[in-house]
Amino acid sequence: MKQKKFEFLKPVELGCHNDDNWTDYYVLLSEIKKGDTFYECDHGRNVKLKALTNPKKNKNGWFCKVRSENYGDRSVFVSAATTYLNANFSKVPLIMSEYNGYFGFIVE
Fold this sequence. Notes:
By secondary structure, the chain is mainly β. It is built from no helices and 9 strands. It starts with 6 loop residues before the first strand and ends with a strand.
């Protein structure tokens, strides 16, 4: 089984500060462009994604093909019924963890 790779980033390395309004880092899937790097932050993980296509809209919502180094290629989707910023997608990792005595972001 292939071992997952990860990187550990401290907030200062990302230009983030404690007094930041973290909602400013959220991105809408509809605004992603092919080639953009963004993060899916969900279920206690920060997964780095690269958009392989521009998002497309159908009657059910927005979808985009993405690539992750650890999880390969897949599609991500946001329902047309979503009426708020999708907190799962962001410009920077959002889920903080402790690693070797430091607080920061483990990115898969």
